[in-house]
Amino acid sequence: MSFRTTSSAFDYVEDVSPGSGALPPRAWYASSDAKALSLDGAWRFRLSATADAEDDSFAEEGYDAAGWAEVTVPGHWVLQGDGAFGLPIYTNHLYPFPVDPPHVPTENPTGDHLRVFDLPEDWPADGGAVIRFDGVESCARVWLNGTDIGEFKGSRLAHEFAVGHLLKPKGNVLAVRVHQWSAGSYLEDQDQWWLPGIFREVTLLHRPAGGVLDFFVHASYDHLTGEGTLRVDSDVDGRVLVPALDIDVATGESVTALVAPWSAESPRLYDGELVTEGERVPLRIGFRTVVLEDGLIKVNGKAVLFKGVNRHEWHPEKGRTLDLATMREDVLLMKRHNINAVRTSHYPPHPAFLDLCDEYGLWVIDECDLETHGFTEQDWRDNPVDDDRWTPALLDRAARMVERDKNHPSIVFWSLGNEAGTGRGLTAMAEWIHGRDPERLVHYEGDWNCRDTDVYSRMYAFHGEVEQIGKRLDGGTQGRRELPFIQCEYGHAMGNGPGGLADYQELFEKYDRLQGGFIWEWIDHGVQHPELGYAYGGDFGEELHDGNFVCDGLIFPDRTPSPGLIEYKKVIEPVRIEGADGTVRVTNKYDFADLSQLAFEWSYQVDGETVEAGTLAVPALAPGESADLKLPESPAHEGAEAQWTVRALLASDTAWAEKGHVVAWGQLPASSPVRPSVAATDRPVRGERLITLGPASFDGRTGALKAIGGVAVESPRLDVWRATTDNDEGTEWNSGIQYSALWRTLGLHRMRHRLGAVELDEDALTVRTRVAPAAREVGLNVVYRWTSDGSRLRLTVSVGPDGEWTQPLPRLGIRLGLSEADQVRWFGGGPGEAYPDTRKASMVGRWDATVDELQTPYLRPQENGARADVRWVELGGLRIEGDPEFSFTARRWTTEQLDAATHLTDLRAGDTVWVNLDHGHHGVGSQSCGPGPLPQYHLRAEPAAFSFVFSVID
Ligand code: GAL
Hints:
By secondary structure, the chain is mainly beta. Residues 92, 190-191, 346, 418-419, 459, 489, 492, 520, 549, 552, 929 line the site of beta-D-galactopyranose.
């Protein structure tokens, strides 16, 4: 028997070393005067099934690639070619190949890329040149004009090669062979799509004689004196100019000046220049000092509270190839939603994103391109981060991150990576980073003993534990006990949710040690798909995949905010507005800014309609300060519900939003909701086949409602089922709560209704039923009591649980069908959806929407769209008032159809609009990865009674 071994020409693919031939990493910058030539665009492309299928003759000058296909660089080949170039694969932590480090499968899609280019006419004849690859997944070998110039791994890191000696004016042949799998893949097991390709730019950079090589801007701020100290260390001597500060010093020398500091709230950047003999490089300098002091992360002398989000790079058509406009959109959306921090999960982003963070103001945790999560399947045996053979690769990754990104003031933390277990390699990385950049802190979540880190970081810790940590009662190593705490991931934004954010925020604000957190995650990684709308794991026939676990963002793939983002914006708003009895308390919750950049407005609503409005003078409160302010005398509102709404708006345009943009708001009740009352004056009358009562007719045998006035109604009846959410599905390995399975086992999705009695009294029609699932003894005794005053119809539903109920109910209410409904108007919470633990952003008012607009397009269809605290709703010719307030949903499909759908394209509008009027919902929670709903948001099976009043709209 003989084994075929890979020929040595391809050994680099499985070599644990980072590569060979590349230049040492250095700062990433765009020169003011050195020429650059973009090599992006159409490249010739040939895909092979294995790494060694083809020799390297394609790299030679004169090779005829006319018969090859084309791909766009930057781009992932599996997202081009309509499937002809292979397909994306999604796994969370499982390696999609045998765990056999450093070996990868023989079937190793390999893309040969060719590009022929001429130098521009004005390309200088002197000096050198480098070719820079900003991102290639996962391993590449490069030839220029037939010369092999090296190979590299480290997909989301820049690699440069000196090529000046190889260039010629015309007909340069750049050949790049990219392998999908390599030893590097073992270090890149992030929870995302596996997407090979040259996915970031390729650029040829002229390197003038005497040009800048590498430089490190050190710009600190002394909050006691207001002085900034600047020193730019440079490999090549030169001068540093900052005109606004009258600075003109030599590189390597420190200079101090009075400055405005940089913070995420006020991102003051000073434009400067580094001038060497051969080159001028623009600098954007932000003065700030990051320290660990008194067990807290302090910037410029103040402890900061991170209101963050984890951001993967994602575009539904382009994958991890993002253009500047898309990056800017992300930053603007974050700023407009009160987010002040971003963790670049789980790799350094495109450098332009960091420029935007500097410019608009976001605290950044820059994370290294490192995750070995799949080794957890074998108890972390052979984990590369604890195997010295891999340490050079880890150090190379750390250095490539730090050196590339070190001049960004927005970066306050370097993160070693994500979910890589523990080991010597990580310690080596941390030591190197601490030595190279002592002016920033080091983060890593995977080591709860905090051996290498400056912060105790966790993911998905439940509220109770977070509180213990806040109280410093969590124990741990001595080192850890002295550290501040952040949740580098929490609030898993998969599908409907995350619930419980406000409860976390309360803790973060209560305990100093808790310095906030980062929601998982920013965007759903849905892939645009011709039949499915957005595809997720499994849609490309992957043999192993993790389904829609890749769709867990605060924004949908097209970057429309999901309700989770709207909720988060409210929960983290930097101004608290609360109060009662006509007095509003305004509290400044910024870390640095006073309130002078905001204007305040009040409005007064009667039955949800604004009747008066005005401005509110709020002093320029300093961070942490509050003021109690008297609102004007409230206008009369006899017999109606009234409330104040106070808003904090931007007083003038900012870089990220216009004047008038709402930053925060609060509502103060001026009276209680007015409950509908209907005198039970009418008597039910039994006809031949129908029973009539007031405007309504009922089936004579079953007592089922058939019509109200001229409006046909599919009779309301008790409903406890909701199309289970991703959070209801839960995960066994995380919280262990899987309501969906519990509920389905109990049979709550297939309740049967047994009619007990139909009773006609003096003043009421009463229908008695028992609602219960097959095979179980538990049930709900349900009594529907109908009364009328001749024109309005009141239904009171009384529910009495029977038997031993151990599980909460998904929902409790009634479902009815209307044959025609489109426009919906309501008075209550809106404009978006709200559930018991996701309802901070729900504002009481008058709202309208079409039935279609009421749907939230979660990529995997599930319960959505409930409007909460509704006093009344009008749709399909009916007005429905609640006693007490209720939630409603309205859809063109049934809950069962919603439950069965796997993609939005499965949902087809039927003839009936199905309306749920809910007395209660079980909380949403975050147990798709995290805690379930807190007990106060559970919908227990308990006796309940609730009413609705129906009338026909004229
Ligand atoms: C974390 C991980 C993330 C993501 C998340 C669940 O464990 O760091 O990358 O997988 O869970 O969506």
